[in-house]
UniProtKB/TrEMBL annotation:
This is Amino acid--[acyl-carrier-protein] ligase. Coiled coil: none annotated. Gene3D superfamilies: Bira Bifunctional Protein, Domain 2 (3.30.930.10). It comes from Azospirillum doebereinerae. InterPro entries: aa-tRNA-synth_II/BPL/LPL (IPR045864). Keywords: Ligase. Its EC number is 6.2.1.n2. It comes from the Bacteria. The keyword Ligase applies. Transmembrane segments: none annotated.
Length: 308
């Protein structure tokens, strides 16, 4: 499939989802409302994730989709993904500036010149608030920590591809501990992820991957990530068979976040971290693509897994 055909397939599937009432357009690419049925599928999949991971005893944390700007700056996200970051600004002018803002707004001009950055930014990944939170508690216990998070996330990459939303939900399990604890966690979830998604009757593959690091230095980081097999993705065709969509990711950060936030293991070493992330909207889109828009007609085994 060439680039034009790929874009056409993305646009066609988006239009089908909108026509079926599953996605509600807002006039901005990658920003959608969701129907009740779409949300039900997301909720059923979320419950399935808990079935597979809930017995591990993860500590549940739920954060809003905004992150402390100081934490964001410390995360070094801007070094690697400045093109995806979303900052939150607010009006900081006086009455005169307000009158000017209203005039420019009425005239269709840029009204944002008196906006200044606030103390919060949009959360780029559900795991980001976890690391400074864990670090603030002091050294890890012997068994390390396992955290369960779920959040809306923002990435500035407007697209007509319905599987590449600007605001989307991510469920994650995050393991913090020794290299051995962390690698065991990732290997467990590589197996679980394949089995769990296989139970939903969708075609899938797991392959080594890399993040979209920015710039020339980013190319080296991407190559290094692939060479060391630090990131795997579970891929499902949604709008393309040749370029399937990453619906789950399995990431080993080594000691990167441990160094950034000074997270220590029980014996004083630098903690390693890994996470498994579930793209909630992407999984729902994959299910609608392969089983149809009428969930009542989905294969009985799939309905049994999701609805019991």
């Amino acid at each position: 499939m060439n680039m034009i055909d790929s874009v056409s397939a993305q646009e066609a599937y988006r239009d089908e989802l909108v026509a079926a009432g599953l996605l509600i357009p807002t006039g901005v690419d990658g920003l959608y409302g969701r129907s009740g049925m779409f949300e039900e599928v997301v909720e059923r999949f979320d419950a399935l994730v808990t079935v597979w991971g809930g017995a591990d005893g993860a500590e549940v944390m739920r954060f809003p989709p905004a992150l402390n700007r100081k934490y964001f700056e410390e995360s070094e996200y801007l070094k690697s993904f400045p093109h995806l970051a979303g900052t939150i600004h607010s009006f900081a002018g006086d009455e005169r500036a307000h009158r000017s803002l209203l005039r420019r707004l009425e005239e269709g001009q840029d009204w944002t010149e008196d906006q200044v950055a606030t103390d919060v930014v949009m959360t780029p990944a559900a795991c980001y608030p976890v690391y400074p939170t864990v670090a603030a508690r002091g050294p890890l216990p012997e068994e390390g920590r396992l955290i369960d998070v779920f959040s809306y996330c923002f990435r500035h990459e407007p697209s007509i591809d319905p599987a590449r939303m600007q605001l989307f939900r991510m469920r994650e399990y995050i393991r913090v501990g020794t290299p051995e604890q962390v690698m065991e966690f990732r290997e467990t979830w590589l197996r679980r992820g394949r089995e769990m998604m296989g139970s939903l009757g969708v075609p899938l593959d797991i392959d080594v991957a890399n993040d979209p690091f920015f710039g020339r230095a980013g190319t080296m980081l991407s190559n290094n990530q692939r060479d060391q097999k630090l990131k795997f993705e579970l891929l499902i065709p949604i709008t393309s068979e040749e370029k399937p969509t990453a619906c789950l990711s399995f990431n080993y950060h080594q000691d990167h976040f441990g160094h950034l936030w000074d997270i220590k293991t029980a014996d004083g070493g630098v903690a390693h971290t890994a996470c498994v992330g579930f793209g909630m909207e992407r999984v729902a889109l994959a299910l609608f693509r392969h089983h149809g828009f009428d969930v009542a007609r989905w294969p009985a085994p799939v309905r049994s897994v999701l609805w019991g």
